């Protein structure tokens, strides 16, 4: 295929199995920042979800078919220019995708101030130019430069050149992307104050209270029985009292008490009564989780996991991470702060179309969820939690409770991280929320070549309908056996 110079509306057949779309311009003083992006559209002309938008903050589609390669200063054929590229493997494009729209956006000015703007289509393997479209614009801040589309079982490329004065946000919204960059989050509300209540009945102390001093010394032959030393853990089959739980609202405190009892029962059933462990919570914040966040399912999961930390961790605290395209550590969850923690930190990821500073209106401790994104990159948060455990070693094992709704596609990277983690004092309990593809996570139990099985997995269709006893039994069924095996192997 020879290079073709296209005018607006013209098209050309594409024979190459993989192509690279290059947005080229001449930078200089007063020239806006220019970015390339791509939208994967169905026959309805809209994206299926926000994951069908590929750009610098979300650089790879989950199918692997489309990727944002980033900018480079153009030597060789394009001296004195800057190029931003998107690569498309046409063989890997999902059947539901009919068009791939190639877009450009300008931040800090209009395209009328961008000289030498063109869109080049190249063979990804050879770098041969297949087509070129020189574009002109005036007041536009976003453009659809061209599109790859299916026609009669083959792919074609069309020069479009449609401009948007409303910027990339307006362009993306037209194709079904949810954009809320300009909508500041609601200001943190004042925490609701629970009505004064009598404190719960005090838990019996673990050390005996000295008896009152008698009026006369007892006979030497009959001294009072000495107090038993405190056990290393509270009662083997009973719930622990955790500092701060007395500050919880009455209904939440009652739920916590019952759930701690269930956790204690589950641990006892699996031969781990009285065990102590550090608990780490990991929450999937990818775009497909939006429904579960909006319906309060994730908040309920966190409350139920707080009971696990209250029973296992000697201080009742729980470290926490959120993740999607990128991971972010959340403030530690202290039991007495649970209602406020749920309100501030149980949040789904967001798309950010612009390179801006921290989102306005956030509480100082809140993560800017635009930095987290909406894609699934489990391997990144696994690596970050591993680094935390290495940097902050504990005298007890670490239990990671990892919740995800699937869409796993970084299988090789995830497997590598979890295999390398075998020699670390960490057990990874993955919980699937729904029936999505969990990839290597659900196969890891059967993968050979590990000294100990450091990973557990189960999935539930609707975790909100799973009773506490069943949930805790499944959640804690493999951790005790790992503790035993890891101890024998010298890992603990």
Would you kindly provide a brief summary of this structure?
By secondary structure, this protein is of the alpha/beta class. The chain has helices at residues 167-174, 250-269, 290-294, 297-312, 338-345, 378-391, 411-420, 440-443, 468-475, 479-488; strands spanning 4-6, 11-14, 18-25, 33-41, 53-54, 66-74, 81-89, 99-107, 118-123, 129-134, 142-151, 154-164, 278-284, 318-323, 327-333, 398-404, 426-433, 455-460.
Can you describe this structure?
It comes from Streptomyces rubrogriseus. Residues 185-233 have a biased composition (Pro residues). This is Stress response protein. Pfam families: TerD, vWA-TerF-like. The chain is an alpha/beta fold and 492 residues long. The chain folds into 2 domains: 4-175, sav2460 like domains (Lipoxygenase-1); 245-351 and 365-489, Rossmann fold (3-Layer(aba) Sandwich), CATH 3.40.50.410. Helices cover 21% and strands 26% of the residues. The chain is built from 10 helices and 18 strands. Strand 14 (318-323) and strand 15 (327-333) form a beta hairpin. The radius of gyration is 29 Å and the shape is elongated. The model is unreliable at 182-236 (pLDDT under 50).
